[in-house]
Amino acid sequence: MKRNGRTPPPDWPSLFAELAQTARDPRLARFYQAGTVSADTPLDQAPLLALDVETTGLDSQRDSIVSLGLVPFDLRRIRCRESSYWVVKPVCELSSQSVTFHHITHSDVSDAPRLATVLDELLTMMAGKIMVVHYRNIERGFLDQAMRHLLGEGLQFPVIDTMQLGARLHPRRRRHGWLRHLLNKQRPVSIRLADSRLRYGLPLYQAHHALTDAVATAELLQAQAATHYPPSTPVGELWN
């Protein structure tokens, strides 16, 4: 059943308890055993972890991860000293387009570790946290496929998607034919990360660097929460 036009997310604590029993890989079992907070947890009490990944392309079935950035934070503070950043050797070749996009070159990845090398640290840092991302299809989709490739089973976790929150605040109206041209003269509001930040007076950062984008996403959620969501807002209203 949908709520307000949206499909409700799963009962994450129950799902994690189930996955902790069925996960075959001990690293995934430990990740799920750490659990997650209940949907009624106030946003200001939720353990948040901003996550960004840069990839060789947009298709998680064909492309792969080249860098990851993670930054723990809450509604008041971003803990940059506790952040992590990795450049990893992708499974597939870098393309000239992807190098132009994220500026990670062939020489950068030639001696970089494989994702498998940093997997324990990655899952340990993610354990018990709610991931905060900007466009969940990338972060959740690519990490799920990476785990399937490395471990033979996928990875599930709740996310708060700042792009999705932006879409809720600025819904794009669908108009058709001549009426659309007459009534929709203004372009839809952009919900890209940089444009979303500008609406809250946040500064521009270098785009497509995993650690910088993770910080930018954390700051954006802080601004969205300060403007639209009181600290007592249950995380279940925001996560997916």
UniProtKB/TrEMBL annotation:
<keyword id="KW-0540">Nuclease</keyword>
<dbReference type="Pfam" id="PF00929">
    <property type="entry name" value="RNase_T"/>
</dbReference>
<dbReference type="GO" id="GO:0005829">
    <property type="term" value="C:cytosol"/>
</dbReference>
<dbReference type="GO" id="GO:0003676">
    <property type="term" value="F:nucleic acid binding"/>
</dbReference>
<feature type="domain" description="Exonuclease">
    <location>
        <begin position="47"/>
        <end position="230"/>
    </location>
</feature>
<dbReference type="InterPro" id="IPR012337">
    <property type="entry name" value="RNaseH-like_sf"/>
</dbReference>
<dbReference type="GO" id="GO:0008408">
    <property type="term" value="F:3'-5' exonuclease activity"/>
</dbReference>
<protein>
    <submittedName>
        <fullName>DNA polymerase III subunit epsilon</fullName>
    </submittedName>
</protein>
<dbReference type="InterPro" id="IPR036397">
    <property type="entry name" value="RNaseH_sf"/>
</dbReference>
<dbReference type="InterPro" id="IPR013520">
    <property type="entry name" value="Ribonucl_H"/>
</dbReference>
<keyword id="KW-0378">Hydrolase</keyword>
<dbReference type="GO" id="GO:0006259">
    <property type="term" value="P:DNA metabolic process"/>
</dbReference>
<keyword id="KW-0269">Exonuclease</keyword>
